Amino acid sequence: MDAVILVALVLLTGLAVQSADLSCKTFEEIYPSGKELCEKMWGDGFVYETNLSLGFTTWFFEAENPNNKVAERLGWPSPVDDCHLQSLHKDTVQKIKEAYGKEWHWDRCGPLSSACERFFVQEACLYECEPNAGFYRKFPDHVYNDSDPNHNKWQMEGMPIRADYCDAWFRACRYDRFCAADSGSYSSCAREYAKVDNTGDNGGNAGLIAGVVVACVIVAVLIGTLGFIIFRERKGEPLFNKPVEGPSIEHSVLLPGFSKTAQIT
């Protein structure tokens, strides 16, 4: 019986760990501030830059790309290409979200508010069309090795992002929900979701399985307890003995208004 209970508890613990990996929390529960949002969500891709003149932005409304001036201050050469937002914005938000596969959907924990989702779209625009982002590829052309499975052409590293932009992103999303795996790492979440998607389990059965395991544990404990009580009864050693009746004890009490004591047994 103890073995059955132990196995059930192990299964329940395993389910709890798996569920925790894919848990959803609000942004403010995952990231204490905009700094952690920018630096944790994207791994080592972005750096929270408090000197705004040295930080890039993922979005702008000016006719001229302000990131070119930032790159110039940082000593980078003029980018070869300009930012072609028009080509990207011919697509809808839905198409941009689906461009990298289901595991990268930013709304796996439920629909985001429009204010929050706007920042994810802007980040995708920076990644796809910002020429200065090329200066921060983790594996630039002179380093990239096609035979090395750890190398890729898309990963970024150390790009300084304006602190006020990161803070605005945090404020826009603070009450929305996001994957909390690995403290909110977007890439870790994508890997976990890919595993779930590949197994065809969307996580919806986890609660049912956990409930069945808990029910089995409770039933096992009840059966074990009942069996133990019966065993003791058959041995003549019941757990719940009748109280032993002892001799009555007399107490002398002086009652108010009486000159003699009353005997109470």
From TrEMBL:
Pfam families: Folate_rec
Domain Folate receptor-like: 90-184
Domain of life: Eukaryota
Keywords: Disulfide bond, Membrane, Signal, Transmembrane, Transmembrane helix
The keyword Cell cycle is assigned to this record: no
Cleaved signal peptide residues: 1-20
Protein family (similarity comment): Belongs to the folate receptor family.
Record-given protein name: Folate receptor-like domain-containing protein
